[in-house]
Write a structure and sequence with these properties.
The protein is α/β, with parallel strands linked by helices. It has one domain (about 20-124): Glutaredoxin (3-Layer(aba) Sandwich), CATH 3.40.30.10. Helix content is about 35%, strand content about 25%. Strands 1-3-2-4-5 form a five-stranded mixed sheet, sandwiched between helices. The chain starts with a helix and ends in a 9-residue tail after the last strand.
Length: about 120
């Protein structure tokens, strides 16, 4: 299994090893993230656990997070489990759904979004 883990990853829940993530699993969690954006920037990473590209971008982003001294709140949205929340984000902020996707909130508003290889912590 070691060889296949190196090629394909260890599993769908690798992101949970990064304890910096807060999970968005309900509209109430989304409301908390939006409220928190009044104090500092909130970053929401929308991830499809079945997509190799999404997994690759997530791993790269997590490396950036670990090496960053920026004081952001990081939220994770599993699109396969909570697509309805992604739809709520799209309708609430007027941002077309993509995966993977990073959305930055500040003062209750979406101020930045990026998808795929354009997701880069240094651009925020």
């Amino acid at each position: 299994m070691g060889f296949f883990n190196q090629i394909f990853g260890k599993g769908e829940d690798d992101h949970q090893s990064a304890t910096i993530w807060a999970q968005i699993e309900s509209e109430s969690d989304l409301d908390k993230a939006v409220a928190q954006s009044s104090a500092h920037k909130v970053l929401i990473f929308k991830h499809s656990t079945r997509c190799f590209i999404s997994k690759t971008v997530l791993k790269s982003f997590e490396k950036q997070m670990q090496n960053s001294d920026k004081k952001y709140a990081y939220y994770f949205l599993d699109l396969l489990k909570h697509r309805n929340i992604s739809n709520a984000i799209e309708s609430r902020f007027g941002i077309t759904h993509q995966s993977p996707q990073l959305i930055v909130l500040e003062n209750g508003e979406a101020i930045y979004d990026a998808s795929h290889q354009n997701i880069d912590l240094d651009k925020i």
